[in-house]
Write a structure and sequence with these properties.
Porin_O/P; about 500 residues; Porin_dom_sf; mainly beta; globular; OprO/OprP family phosphate-selective porin; coiled coil; Porin; two-stranded antiparallel ribbon; signal; 16-stranded antiparallel beta barrel; single chain
Length: about 500
């Protein structure tokens, strides 16, 4: 019966593929011969699939129970098997054996040759020959926040907002070429965020590289390199938000990266963000970062990192005024402020990272300094920041550390609630400090945060942060010492 079904399916595919029905077709004998050949080919393809899957199962048998690593950034080659950690897979380039299996399965399953799989809530499409892959992307992050206890009623606000509302796509062509594009609609406006093309290859076993060109996300610090959908707290540390180029988290340019088994290094050269203004020269930013894991196993990692940037500011694009988040993103009155500060000629920033995890417990410390050069012989405007944070997964899940990029990704939840488990529950805590110095209107502040994260599965989360903050501004509407509390909550889905 299976043979009859295969023959019938082949006949339907053959007729559907005939472009001109009005033209004379093959006679009965020729048609019968074509059907027999198609049935034989399908049988051979099925045998090859079964053989390859059996070989792959046998090869993977000694590794059963070990965690599987997938990088948060879809355009990366898969990391080496040794010492990998679990977090949620997205679109990854398959290895040779997996690629062969997918090619054969796609050819045997559909007449068009396209195969579809479901991973992070959205389909991934593969061409039959394994050359092309394509995946839509999405990110929905909703926040609610209330602040109270301030001496200024204008700071005691309750607000809501979309932290991210993104749609995009990613894909590969062949083994080496990849691309990604995303737009954000969270402020009710279209904002192009990630948009690049890239090329990757292997230099030697255990040594890979890629080069990306386009609108690029910073590789700068631990949380500064972590996506907004993957941070363990609702807002990144003050090191990530204050020790930063004027162009902020994105720039248009080129970024080559080198990867080895225990770390990576990157170098970035960019102009401004995508702004459509070609009437003046762009600011220029050079940024470099490297991280190293001297200890790396399935359940333990030690992370060391260093980074720095230098920025040249053009006339007309040299405003250095800062209003930096200290107690929550969605309270516009709750900031550390410098007051108006113009006449910048350039900035230089640098920072260090130290942390890691052991089993379900993680810890990360970051520190950085930024010096902004002013015209007219004025002293540099100095920003200093540091933070210490950590977390503990009560459910025994491992922290979603990405050893390839030295940042956090989506977690690999051991027992998702959609499969009858409790999900992953994480307790977090952080202390951070920020200071603006060597200007006429200095400012300083700190914040202490306690949080709870509940990951329903690898791409759905609820987060709650309770923050006690302290500020001392000398400029703006809220000058003087002030303190209070902010309670924030988030629900997020990342596809």
């Amino acid at each position: 019966m299976i043979r009859h079904l295969s023959t019938g399916a082949a006949l339907v595919a053959l007729v559907a593929a005939t472009p001109a029905l009005a033209q004379p077709g093959p006679d009965r004998d020729e048609l019968a011969e074509l059907v027999r050949a198609q049935a034989a080919e399908i049988a051979a393809l099925r045998q090859r699939v079964e053989r390859l899957e059996a070989e792959r199962t046998a090869a993977a048998a000694p590794q059963q129970g070990a965690p599987v690593l997938a990088t948060r950034e879809p355009a990366e080659p898969a990391p080496a098997a040794a010492g990998t950690q679990p977090y949620a897979p997205q679109l990854l380039p398959p290895g040779p054996a997996e690629r062969d299996v997918e090619r054969v399965r796609a050819a045997a399953v559909t007449a068009s040759g396209v195969s579809t799989e479901w991973g992070q809530g959205l389909p991934v499409f593969h061409s039959a020959d394994g050359v092309f892959s394509f995946k839509p992307r999405g990110r929905i992050i909703f926040d609610a926040s209330t602040s109270f206890g301030s001496d200024h009623e204008g700071r005691n606000l309750t607000t809501t907002g979309m932290r991210a509302l993104r749609m995009g796509l990613e894909g590969t062509v062949g083994t080496h070429f990849f691309y990604q594009f995303e737009s954000d609609f969270s402020e009710n406006e279209v904002d192009v965020v990630t948009a690049f093309m890239g090329w990757r290859n292997r230099i030697a076993p255990g040594l890979d590289y890629d080069v990306r060109v386009g609108h690029l996300f910073n590789d700068r610090g631990f949380e500064g390199s972590t996506g907004s959908d993957s941070t363990p707290f609702l807002e990144r540390t003050v090191v990530a938000t204050a020790i930063i180029p004027q162009r902020a988290f994105y720039g248009l340019g080129i970024m080559p990266r080198l990867f080895w088994k225990t770390g990576h290094a990157s170098l970035t050269l960019t102009g401004d963000r995508i702004d459509g203004d070609q009437s003046t020269s762009d600011n220029r930013t050079v940024l470099a970062r490297a991280h190293w894991n001297p200890i790396k196993s399935n359940r333990q990692v030690l992370h060391l990192g260093i980074w720095g940037f230098d920025e040249m500011l053009q006339p007309g694009k040299n405003t250095l005024t800062r209003n930096t988040v200290i107690g929550g993103r969605f309270n516009g009155a709750l900031r550390l402020s410098t007051g108006t500060l113009i006449g910048g000629t350039g900035t230089t920033g640098y920072g260090v990272e130290l942390g890691g995890y052991a089993g379900p417990l993680w810890l990360m410390a970051e520190a950085g300094e930024r010096r902004a050069r002013l015209d007219g012989g004025r002293a540099d405007f100095v920003t200093r920041a540091w933070s210490v944070g950590g977390g503990w997964f009560l459910t025994g899940d491992l922290p979603p550390y990405n050893p390839r990029l030295g940042s956090f990704g989506q977690p690999k939840v051991l027992r998702p609630i959609f499969e009858g488990g409790p999900g992953a529950i994480e307790l977090t805590a952080r202390y951070e400090s920020l200071e603006f110095d060597d200007i006429l209107t200095p400012a300083q502040g700190w914040a202490a945060t306690l949080g709870v994260n509940w990951y329903l599965n690898s791409f759905t989360r609820f987060q709650v942060n309770a923050i006690h903050w302290n500020t001392q501004n000398t400029a703006g509407a809220y000058a003087g010492k002030d303190d209070g509390e902010t309670l924030s909550a988030r629900v997020g889905v990342t596809f």
